[in-house]
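Need residues for this backbone.
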């Protein structure tokens, strides 16, 4: 003999099934967000981590610099200038023989 259908029981079953489906959807979405956040944190960690440089690269850069400007740092000095460097005397003016006058009137 068929059982009578109770309306309240059927509504409760449907509501429970919907809640279970929503919980499963939320758990899946939370897992996706958590994995995306972990990947982002790993990417930031890799970008901010200091890596060792190779020494071979520095010698290559130095060779490139020497090729483009081979005589940088090499200056020919006149004989005698190594012993005594000319300095300013107290009476010397900064621009040679020109005299400068400061006129202040109040």
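Answer:
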């Amino acid at each position: 003999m068929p059982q009578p259908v109770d309306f309240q029981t059927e509504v409760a079953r449907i509501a429970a099934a919907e809640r279970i489906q929503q919980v499963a959807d939320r758990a899946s979405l939370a897992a996706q967000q958590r994995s995306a956040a972990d990947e982002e944190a790993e990417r930031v960690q890799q970008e901010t981590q200091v890596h060792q440089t190779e020494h071979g690269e520095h010698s290559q850069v130095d060779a490139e610099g020497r090729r483009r400007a081979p005589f940088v740092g090499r200056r020919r000095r006149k004989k005698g200038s190594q012993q005594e460097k000319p300095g300013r005397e107290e009476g010397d003016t900064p621009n040679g023989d020109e005299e400068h006058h400061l006129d202040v009137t109040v």
